[in-house]
Specification:
45% of the residues lie in helices and 15% in strands. It has three helices and three strands; from the N terminus they run βαβαβα.
Length: 92
């Protein structure tokens, strides 16, 4: 089963401070996770760090992280950093 989570704000340092408890909760769960990035217009290094944290923690539990709705700068950054090779749905 997959848990779908809508991220409704940019993923910058301030937002990631608020999202950290959610990401930790998702990582501790038992479901695959799909992050809906439709509402995200900007991702910085803190946001990338959060995605990598969640990806690694889910993978340790044999679970998957998927992205959907990524577009613009977030999609370009994810593809540029080649995270799209690891995380399903991150391809342009």
């Amino acid at each position: 089963m997959a848990k779908v989570v809508l991220i409704g704000e940019d993923m910058d340092a301030a937002a990631m401070a608020r999202l950290k408890p959610l990401f930790e909760e998702l990582a501790a769960g038992t479901d695959d996770v799909t992050l809906d990035l439709t509402g995200v217009d900007f991702v910085d290094s803190s946001g990338i760090g959060g995605l990598v944290f969640l990806y690694k923690r889910l993978r340790l539990g044999s679970r998957k992280l998927r992205l959907r709705g990524a577009r613009g700068q977030p999609l370009q950054l994810i593809a540029h950093l080649r995270l799209s090779d690891l995380i399903e749905g991150g391809k342009a």
